[in-house]
Structure formats: C-alpha cells, structure tokens
Design a protein that fits this description.
cell membrane, MetI-like fold, about 0% strand, about 300 residues
Length: about 300
C-alpha cells in the first residue's frame, strides 16, 4: 500500500504541484487580507487610546487597556439596547424565515394557478421601491410608530430568501409530497412535516442573512423609534456614541479624572471607540456563524440547482 502511494506521488506532474502550491499561497494571502482588519480592530480596541494615536498598532496591543470597553459599557442604555437587539434578531429571524418558507412552498407548487404572477409581483419589489416617505407614511398609518413590531412586520417577507427557498423546494422529489397527499395530509401538514424538515440547510442560510440584517439595522430605529429610549437597539446606541465622540473633537476621559494619581489621564478617542464598537457589534454574529457554517454552503449550493 505504501509503495502504491509513493508511486502515485511520483506520477503527479510538476505542473500540478506548482499549481497546488500557488493555490495554497493564494488562499493563505486571502485569509490574511480577510482576517487582518478584524485583528487590527481588536488590537486597537484593547490598546491604550492615547498610545494608539501614535500609530504602529497592527496585530496586538502595545499597551493593554480596557478603558474603551469600560466607556462603551458604562453607558446606561447599552445593556437594555442589547436586549432589544437580541429580541428583534431572534423574533425577526424566526418569523421572517417561517413566513418566507410558507410563501416559497406555495409558489413552488405546479398546481398553484397564479404562481407565476405572484412570483413576478414579489420579484418586482426587488427592483422598484416606494421610497422612504411612502414607507414612513405607511408605517405611521399602520400604527407601528414607537412600537417594537416596527422592527418585525415591515421586513417579515424577504423576496431573495423566498427565491432561494423556492429553488431548494423545487429540487425535492415530487414523490414525497404525493405520498403525503395519498395519506390524506393537507398542504399545511405536508409543509410542516415533510418540506420544512428537509429544507433545514437552506433555512439556516436564509436565517443567517436575516439575522445579520436584523442585528446590524439601526436606520429604522432612527426613523420610527428615535424618541423612545426603551426601544433603542445596540447598533443605534453605538452610532449615537460614535457621533458624540466625533462631534466632541477631543479625547474623552471615561474615569472623570486622572488614573492612579498620575499626570496622564486614561482617555478614549473616536478611533478607539470605533474599534471597540466594531468588536462589540461583530462578536455575536461571529459566535453564531460556526454553528451554521455547514448549512451555509450546502444551502446556497443546493438552492441554486433550479431557477
């Protein structure tokens, strides 16, 4: 067996080996380019802000300091805003994914007479939008102003997610649905017990898209709930914090004085706050992504089998 493997290695052309090594080098470079900005942000956020002004922070902090994180989390609204962000992300993702999957199942059925018309109507909304003012007026007329549900209801349907899920469902064997109908199952039972369990890979993919959108969204808070602090989200609070730090034009002393009686105060700067905000906002998504990674690639691949 070992002799066969050695002979196989000898038969590999030198051109293929060079190509493989080129691919390895290219992927390593791509990985460094992708990971470095996040590592640099982490190093800047953990470095003393007054020292960071000098520059030269690359992979690790030169003077370890948690003043920027202390400044961010000492803000009274951060904890409650984080709770609101988590709630809107969880509820928004679950409701949107389930509703999108139901619509995708309906328009994937060949016996649905209006499926082409309904599909076209949904797709048109991806290219044409009513605009900011009509959307604002609609939300106001629906009574969603200063309400938590303004984060959920307007985005309850994702057209792109519907198209991806529909393509996945169309790739499933028709015999599964036919056998369920023969056994007396209705459409909703077929969807819940047959289709939904089989579409978990693509649902995980679309759920990740929706969760990232819900977690990072702040403009809807600015439009509809800016006067209600109880419904403010983490992203909106971080955005306000960054604007305040930029408007100050100078360093902010989070401790309100000198540390340990020294002549140099522990300051935070807009740059250190920006880096800290990036880490705080990105960390939850980074923690969730590894659990969905195996579904992510599979869902995108299988969802694109049929158009």
């Amino acid at each position: 067996m070992a002799i066969a493997e050695k002979s196989y290695k000898r038969r590999v052309p030198i051109g293929d080996r060079i190509f493989d090594w080129f691919n390895y080098a290219f992927m390593i470079c791509l990985m460094i380019v992708t990971v470095y900005p996040f590592v640099n942000m982490l190093a800047v956020s953990l470095n003393d802000a007054s020292d960071s002004v000098k520059g030269g922070i690359y992979f690790w902090p030169r003077e370890l300091s948690f003043d920027s994180y202390k400044y961010v989390f000492d803000q009274g609204t951060i904890v409650h805003a984080t709770f609101i962000s988590v709630m809107r992300t969880v509820l928004g993702t679950l409701i949107s994914t389930f509703c999108s999957a139901m619509i995708a199942y309906a328009i994937s059925r060949p016996d649905f007479v209006l499926r082409k018309f309904v599909t076209l109507a949904f797709v048109l909304t991806m290219y044409f939008n009513g605009g900011l003012i009509p959307n604002f007026l609609l939300v106001r007329e629906l009574g969603l102003m200063n309400s938590f549900w303004v984060y959920i209801i307007p985005g309850i349907i994702g057209v792109f997610n519907i198209i991806v899920i529909r393509s996945f469902i169309e790739g499933l064997p028709d015999g599964l649905m036919e056998s369920a109908r023969i056994d007396g199952a209705g459409e909703f039972t077929t969807f819940m017990r047959i289709v939904l369990p089989l579409t978990l890979p693509v649902l995980a993919t679309t759920s990740l898209f929706t969760a990232v959108y819900q977690w990072n969204s702040w403009f809807d808070v600015f439009l509809y709930n800016s006067s209600n602090v109880e419904l403010s989200t983490l992203q909106y609070e971080l955005m306000k914090m960054l604007q305040n730090s930029n408007a100050s034009g100078s360093s902010i002393d989070p401790a309100g004085g000198f540390a340990n009686g020294s002549a140099a105060a522990n300051y935070v700067t807009p740059t250190s706050i920006r880096a800290t905000m990036t880490i705080v906002a990105s960390l939850p998504i980074i923690m969730v992504y590894p659990f969905l990674q195996r579904y992510f690639v599979k869902g995108l691949t299988l969802g694109g089998v049929k158009g």
